[in-house]
Amino acid sequence: MSDRHDHATAPIRLRDYAPPAWRVESIELSFELGIDTTEVTARLHLRGDASRPLRLDGEGLELLAIALDEQPLDAGAWRYADGVLEVDGVSDGSVLTTRVRTHPAANTALEGLYLSGSREAGFLLTQCEAEGFRHITFFPDRPDVLTRYTVTLQADRARFPVLLAGGNPDGAGDLPDGRHWARFVDPHPKPCYLFALVAGRLEKIERDYLTGEGRTVKLVIWSEANVIDSCHYAMDALERCMRWDEQAYGRHYDLDVFHVVATHDFNMGAMENKGLNIFNAKYLLADPDTTTDDEYKAVEAVVAHEYFHNWSGNRVTCRDWFQLSLKEGLTVFREQQFSADMNSTALKRIEDVALLRRAQFPEDAGPLAHPVRPAEYREINNFYTATVYEKGSELVRMLAGKLGPEGFRRGMDRYFERNDGRAATIEDFLAALGDANDLDLMPYLAWYGQAGTPRLRARGHFDAGARRYTLTLSQHAQAHADLPEKPPLPIPVKLALFDRDGRMLALRMDGQTVGHEAVVVLDRDEQTFAFDEIERSPVPSLLRGFSAPVILECDYAPADLALLLTHDPDGFNRWEAGQQLAALAFDDCRHGGQIALQAWCNALAQLFADPTLDPALLADLLTPPGEVELAEREQEVDPAQIHALRQQLQKQLAETIGAFALAQRLAALEVAGPLQLDAVAKAQRRLKRRVLELLALIDAPTAQARADAQYRRAQGMTDRLAALSVLVRSDAASAADALADFRRRHADNPLALDKWFAVQAQLPGERALERVRSLESDPAFTLKNPNRARALLGTFASGNPSGFHRADGAGYQLLAERLVALDALNPQIAARLATAFNGWQRLEPVRRDAARRVLSALAEKPELSRNLAEIVAGVLK
Ligand code: ARG
Ligand code: ZN
Question: Does residue 306 have its Cβ closer than 6 Å to ligand 1?
Answer without folding.
Answer: yes
